[in-house]
From TrEMBL:
SUPFAM superfamilies xrefs: C-terminal effector domain of the bipartite response regulators (SSF46894)
Record-given protein name: Helix-turn-helix transcriptional regulator
GO BP term (any one): regulation of DNA-templated transcription
GO function terms (MF aspect): DNA binding
Originating organism: Streptomyces pilosus
UniProt xrefs under Pfam families: GerE
Length: 343
């Protein structure tokens, strides 16, 4: 019954505001009241609970409470009747669509399940991954961010990788360059042999696991306690294309990282310099490169020392001067050094 009233008093006759309650009650007790007493409650006039006295327009008289109750009951009856009619229409529409559905053969996507499914909880994620592993026959593509992979993480997926290798499934994994320093990863790759190829990049996208270009898994929250299972062909194809482009840019794990061409600056520090030039904070840089904030700041300190910068502002200038902000390949001369170094 709401929906009447003014902007200041958005209510119906079934629930008066406090001021309206007082003024209407006073009008009922007295039989009428001066118009000026109702100036602060225009809702009573909007709801027809007060109306002008035909004998004296400076006074307002109340609508009888019995009449108001009758009006409210009539409104409730109308709303219930309208709801019943809507329910009846919905049932008829449901039956009509159900009849159509029985005439149309299910699509391949519908037969396999929903195109996007939310997996809530590690147990459901593991179960869905095991199911996809059992159905996989050709290839698995993975992107593993986060730097050095812990032994527990590698052991968690080892049974799936072993099962895939046994069926001749090929696997390709993308990591950040930092993962090269993890002994667990090297042992895992040695164990898997030719079944797995691995490459690394400065940065990779969030975690991705793609089976046979038909089903993909991506995180649904930062804690990775929820995941999305994707089976929509367009989405899966898009993710496969992203992986292939990153793969072409990546460096095989068995190949060394390219030299920066600047004495005293490592490849990782070159990546940090480029991200600093983009204006990122230490924590963001650390997360993107898969290192700790402490390690990131140690590299920044070495960068500052190598480039002869006494402050962050000066470091930004030095990064631009040496071309580290855009990986440009010009010869540079470091502050305090006599000979240029070509990159």
């Amino acid at each position: 019954m709401a929906g009447h009233g003014t902007d200041g008093h958005p209510h119906g006759a079934d629930r008066l505001c406090e001021a309206g309650d007082r003024v209407y009650s006073r009008a009922v007790r007295r039989g009428r009241l001066p118009r000026r007493e109702a100036e602060r409650v225009p809702c009573l006039l909007e709801l027809a609970l007060l109306h002008p006295d035909p004998d004296d327009m400076d006074w307002l008289v109340p609508t009888a409470p019995q009449e108001v109750m009758t009006r409210l009951l009539r409104g409730m009856y109308d709303e219930v009747s309208a709801s019943q009619r809507r329910v009846g229409s919905a049932v008829e529409a449901f039956e009509w669509y159900a009849g159509l559905g029985r005439q149309v053969p299910p699509s391949p996507v519908a037969a396999e399940g929903p195109a996007i499914r939310v997996l809530d909880g590690l147990a459901r994620i593991q179960a869905a991954m095991d199911e996809a592993t059992q159905a996989c026959t050709t290839e698995v593509l993975t992107v593993q961010p986060g730097g050095i992979r812990r032994e527990a993480e590698l052991s968690e997926g080892l049974h799936r990788a072993t099962a895939l290798r046994g069926r001749g499934v090929r696997m390709r994994d993308l990591y950040t360059h930092v993962a090269r320093h993890g002994h667990g990863l090297l042992s895992y790759l040695e164990l898997m042999g030719d079944a797995v190829q691995a490459r690394t990049l400065d940065e990779v996208i969030e975690r991705l696991i793609l089976f046979d270009r038909t089903v993909a898994f991506i995180p649904a929250n930062a804690e990775r306690t929820m995941a999305l299972e994707l089976r929509h062909p367009a989405l899966v194809e898009y993710l496969g294309t992203v992986f292939e482009r990153l793969w072409r840019l990546a460096i095989p794990l068995t190949a060394p990282l390219p030299d920066t061409g600047i004495e005293g600056i490592s490849h990782r520090e070159q990546s940090i310099a480029a991200l600093l030039a983009e204006g990122h904070q230490d924590a963001v840089i650390a997360e993107r490169l898969g290192i700790s904030v402490r390690t990131c700041r140690a590299h920044i300190a070495r960068l500052s020392e190598t480039l002869g910068a006494a402050s962050r502002t000066q470091l930004g200038v030095r990064i631009a001067q040496t071309g580290l902000d855009g990986f440009r390949g010009a010869a540079v001369t470091l502050p305090g050094r006599g000979s240029p170094s070509g990159r």
